[in-house]
Amino acid sequence: MVCGHALTIQRVLTPRYLRAYDGLVSSQGFRHRHLVGISALAPEEITQILDLGDHYLELDAQPVKKLAELRGRTIINLFFESSTRTRTSFEIAAKRLGADAVNITGSASSTAKGETLIDTVRNVEAMRPDAIVVRHAFGGAAAMIAPHVGGAIINAGDGQHEHPTQALLDAATIRRHKGLKTAGSPRGGSIAGLEVAIVGDLAHSRVARSNILCLSKLGANVRACAPWTLVPRGLEDIGGEVTRAHTRITPHLDEALEGADVVMMLRVQNERTAGEAPRFPNAREFSRMYGLSVRTLERAKPDAIVMHPGPINRGVELAPEVADGARSVILEQVSWGVAIRMAVLRAWIMKSFEVP
Ligand code: ASP
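Predict the joint structure of the above. Result:
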C-alpha cells in the first residue's frame, strides 16, 4: 500500500502534467494556472496567500460579508468524495466574493452512470466555469484533469496526495497564534522555527503531506509521528531538500510532543484501508499509544495550540476534553477555511496575489 502510493504519485506527476500547471505568468507575476498542490508554490507565494486570507478574515466581523470581486464568475464544486466542511467552505467563499457557485456531487454526477472522469470534466468545462474545485479519491485526479480545462483547477483533496487549501488554512491559523512579528518579517509574522507535531495516520493523510510541504517551506520544523505501519516510505523526502531539512519522523508520541508549539492530530482513515491487513491491533490500543489526552498534552509547551482538520474521531485520536479545551483552535481552523479559500479563488481567477 505504502509502495503503491509512492508509485501513484510518480506515475501521475509526470512532466506532461507538471507543464499544465506551471505554464502561465501573468502581468502581476502570477505563474500558476491551477492549484494542484503546495509542492508547486514558492514560500513567498504561500505568504502572499496567507496575507490575502488575513484580509478576507476581517469580513467575519462585518454584518454583511458579501463582496463583488468575482461578480459574474462561475465556480463549480465537483466533489466525488464526501465532504461537509471543505465543500461548504468553498461554496461560501465563492458566494462571499460575489461569484455563482454550483455544486456537483459524485453520486449525482454522470460518472456514477459510467462516464469517465475526463468526460465529466470536459462536459462541465463546456459550460465555461472560471474555476473547478475538485475532490476525488484518486491521488492525482486534479493533475490529470488540469490539461482539459480553460479555467483553474483547485484541488480540494485528491486521494492520499495533497489537500493544499487545508495546509494553507492551517498555516494561517498557526501564524495568527504563533506568528513572530519582527522588523522585516512577513505581515502576519513568521512561523519559521516553530515546532509542529503532526500525529496520526500519516500513511493515508493528504493533510499530512500538504502540511509537511507548507510548514517546511515556511521554515517550521515538523515532527511527524505514527506507528511505523502508518508511516509511508520517503515521507520526509516529498519536497526534496526543504522537507528533509525540516521533517523528523518518530514513532514515539512523547518525543513528538516534547516542547511542541503546535499539535496537529489526524484521523485514522478507515475508509482507505478496507480489506487491508490492520495497521494496529484496535482503536483502543491506538488511542492509548497515539491519542492526545490532557495528560499527554502536558509534554507540549504550556501555550501549545491543538489542531485537527476534522472530522474528529472523538476518543480515538483526540480526547473530548482536549478537542473542546482552551487550547483547541479546531473551530477557528474552519473560519480560516472560508477566508483562505476566498484568497485562493480570487488569486487563481484574477491571476494576482495582490490584496485588493
Ligand atoms: N477532511 C480532511 C481530508 O479531507 C481530513 C480527514 O478527512 O480526515 O483529508
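The radius of gyration is 19 Å.
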